[in-house]
């Protein structure tokens, strides 16, 4: 019997500092300029536009 295939690598993780309920957007979003946020059963997309504005969509 062959051993099971190796597990896929975990998703990348990063640590974000929160000071007085404030998070720097660059630290939160990172170089990809887009972040998925799970809230309950819904998933939201937070992204930085080409004009450097933030948009949150469901």
UniProtKB/TrEMBL annotation:
<dbReference type="InterPro" id="IPR019600">
    <property type="entry name" value="Hemin_uptake_protein_HemP"/>
</dbReference>
<protein>
    <submittedName>
        <fullName>Hemin uptake protein HemP</fullName>
    </submittedName>
</protein>
<dbReference type="Pfam" id="PF10636">
    <property type="entry name" value="hemP"/>
</dbReference>
């Amino acid at each position: 019997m062959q051993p099971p295939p190796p597990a896929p690598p975990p998703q990348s993780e990063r640590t974000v500092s929160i000071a007085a309920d404030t998070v720097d957007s660059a630290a939160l979003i990172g170089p990809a300029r887009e972040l998925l946020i799970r809230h309950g059963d819904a998933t939201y997309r937070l992204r930085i536009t080409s004009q450097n504005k933030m948009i949150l969509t469901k």
